[in-house]
Amino acid sequence: MMHPSVESSRELVPVEHFMNLSAEINYHLSAEVPREQALLALVAGPARLEFEEPLRLAMRIIRLGYADTRRKIGPLAVLHPLRTASLLARCMPHPDILDLLGAMLHDKHEDLPQEAVPEQNRDEFDRLFNLLLENIGAEHQWYLGERLALLTREPRMTYHEYLVRLLDQSDRMPDLLHVKLADRLDNTLDHHIHRPGVLRYNFYRNLFDLLFVSVYRGVNIRQYHFLPEPEEGALLLAQLFKNALFLSLMRVLKRDRIDETSRRLFDAIAIASIREAQWLALELIASVGQDKLPELRRRIVETMDYCYHGGATQVHEASVGPGVAGVFLERFTYALGEDRRNAMIELYRDKDYLATVIITFIATFSAFLNDSEFALEGIDREGVHAVGVWTPRS
């Protein structure tokens, strides 16, 4: 496992900073008369802006479009595009207009078709978007339109197909990759808003105590213990699967180091995924009664063996016991819409299986950080496929 200090040095946005950023943006949005300049300064952070008017227009557009709509886990939907732009601005010394407009508007085609915009806002929404296009000029209009189209996943397109299309275009449009990476980072960290108190608990210390300390009585986080309901738990699992697939494809297609911004965001997503998996693992340990700790200890020892002997490094069929690869193949990669949602809920409800999956995720994302060439075997341009059969040691 990577040394904590090394991991921390590559953590672009610590969870605490992300939560503060979310709170500050939400505070400005909730003002009776929000001050655009203050909100823009908060979103842009340290970035030096030379094109403020288009960004002001973009902020008005998405606020009109999303209005009071909320994300599946509760926060205002408009927070996501604003935070995505903010995360991108904090990892690039000189983001250009396509970087930040792309980040703010990346979900426009999917989330804000005309019928989804509140009826009373539609005329102003269209007027401001046309004004934005006029403001940035014909050349940038074309480039922005191209990017928003590529950032939109088409109906019936698998997530794998969508990512390959996007990555194929990233050599000539690195800003496209920057936006998608920032989007992935925000979607991963978004789940942490509901559980600030658990930050003070160390996953590795509790795992050590569980495995080696005979008088260990479990994780004492009752005052912060919020094991997610199946809907939210399924959403978090889907984010982790998306991240594992995306990072592997980036490595396979040689897009993880096309520039410094991509490299930094790649590492940040791996670390954020580890943090979220650690949190869920702590909640699982806390939810187990003391009489069931021996069984949990046995499960974790089996998972350690599973990870070390291929479970965390390749897609495979599991001949004995659960396999994360089977979830990749059957429940996530090629399932769409409601089928995938139901598959994630089914996985989340199987707490024994879930423990193996979550700890395997921690090992997989740690491998991305430890080895600059690592990618999950069995994930390539053509799809996700089994490369072997995993069997436990005799």
Give me the count of strands: 4
Largest sheet: 2 strands, parallel
**pLDDT < 50 runs, ≥5 residues:** 1-6
Domains, number = 2
Strand content: under 5%
Average pLDDT for all residues: 84
Range of helix content? 55-70%
Number of helices: 17
Task: Compute the CA-based radius of gyration.
Answer: 21 Å
The coarse overall form would be globular
Distance between the termini: 25 Å
- The main sheet orders its strands as 1-4
* Helix-strand makeup class: mainly alpha
Element-by-element helix/strand order: HHHHHHHHHHHHHHEHHHEEE
How would you describe the overall organization of this protein?
The protein is 63% helix and 2% strand. The chain has 394 residues and is mainly α. The chain folds into two domains: 4-150, no CATH class; 174-390, no CATH class. The chain has a two-stranded parallel sheet. A two-stranded antiparallel ribbon has the order 2-3. Strand 2 and strand 3 (383-384) form a beta hairpin. Helix 12 (230-252) runs antiparallel to helix 13 and helix 12 packs parallel to helix 17.
What is the topological layout?
Layout: H1 4-9, H2 15-30, H3 36-44, H4 52-66, H5 79-89, H6 97-105, H7 108-111, H8 122-150, H9 159-169, H10 174-189, H11 203-212, H12 230-252, H13 260-287, H14 293-311, E1 317-318, H15 324-332, H16 337-349, H17 351-370, E2 379-380, E3 383-384, E4 389-390
Parallel strand pairs: 1-4
Antiparallel strand pairs: 2-3
Helix pairs in contact: 2-3, 4-6, 4-8, 5-6, 5-10, 6-8, 6-10, 9-12, 10-13, 12-13, 12-16, 12-17, 13-17, 14-17
